[in-house]
Design goal:
The chain contains nine helices and seven strands. It has 241 residues and is of the alpha/beta class. Bound molecules: NADP nicotinamide-adenine-dinucleotide phosphate (NAP).
Length: 241
């Protein structure tokens, strides 16, 4: 489904980003996966000849600024950007450190804006592209103990809507996926009772898997969603929060 498409995926080394990378490789895309864990990057390169590992910290612009230029020079086009990498660090209001605020905003928001800017420069030239941001249903509904995380994801949602309006005349679509609770390392620190409560709120009766999000990303990356932009698609099994 993605033959000859060039995709850049942040946070490709595990969880949702790894599932998207695998599905896109299986769909014949040329995938450039960004992450910091070299062993995990190597694992994907060994599995898929069309996976190109990039070991970089998305918050370090000195490492990321040339990524898009080099890929464009190598491939001649950049078709898909998945802004997936993200971090979550919970604290109650009154206990939140400046470091938590800065780190979450830098990873979850600043990098999304910076990567969108870099990708759109090339996508504008070719008059096509699909940008997919991974937000969260917490960015819509909020959650106690997650005020900063929810603020970062709310920012991703509003950025997605504005970017879609601004870039539509260049043929660039911008959408977001808002996952519910997905079975990855990100939720490994959530206390068992809280996790059980969250799962009990899911109408489809199960926790989400990374492939559930990857399948939606594949749809948004292909021309099957060619008339869809500026949308936030919940992938949450209908969580009633
Ligand atoms: N899991 C959920 O329940 C859930 C729900 C809603 C939304 N989400 C969102 O989905 C996205 C993926 O989450 P996940 O559950 O797959 O998390 P995860 O398993 O913890 O994976 C996070 C990924 O982000 C990468 N990453 C983090 N900071 C980075 C940085 N500074 N530079 C480069 N890469 C960085 C990590 O790579 P390295 O470790 O190799 O650097 C890793 O590949 C996040 O945006 C998250 O907020 C998740």
């Amino acid at each position: 489904m993605l033959s000859n498409k060039v995709a850049i995926i942040t946070g490709a080394t595990k969880g949702i980003g790894k599932a998207i990378s695998q599905l896109f490789c299986q769909s014949n895309a040329v995938v450039y996966g960004i992450g910091r864990n070299q062993d995990n990057l190597n694992e994907l390169s060994e599995l898929y000849h069309n996976f190109h590992p990039i070991n970089a910290d998305i918050c370090d612009t000195s490492q990321t600024k040339n990524i898009f230029t080099s890929i464009y020079k190598e491939q001649g086009h950049i078709d898909i950007l998945i802004n997936n990498a993200g971090i979550m660090s919970d604290s109650l209001i009154g206990m939140i450190s400046d470091e938590q605020i800065f780190n979450m905003f830098q990873t979850n928001v600043f990098s999304v804006i910076q990567f969108t800017q870099m990708a759109s420069r090339f996508m504008k030239k070719q008059k096509s592209g699909s940008i997919i941001n991974i937000a969260s249903i917490i960015g819509v509904h909020g959650n106690a103990g997650q005020s900063v995380y929810s603020a970062t994801k709310g920012a991703v949602i509003s950025f997605t809507k504005s970017a879609a309006k601004e870039l539509s005349s260049y043929g660039i679509r911008v959408n977001a996926i808002a996952p519910g609770i997905i079975n990855t390392d990100l939720i490994s620190n959530v206390p068992e009772d809280k996790l059980a409560k969250r799962i009990s709120q899911i109408q489809l009766g199960r926790i989400g898997q990374p492939i559930d999000v990857a399948n939606t990303a594949l749809f948004l990356a292909t021309d099957m969603s060619g008339y869809i932009t500026g949308q936030i698609i919940n992938v949450d099994g209908l969580a009633i929060l």
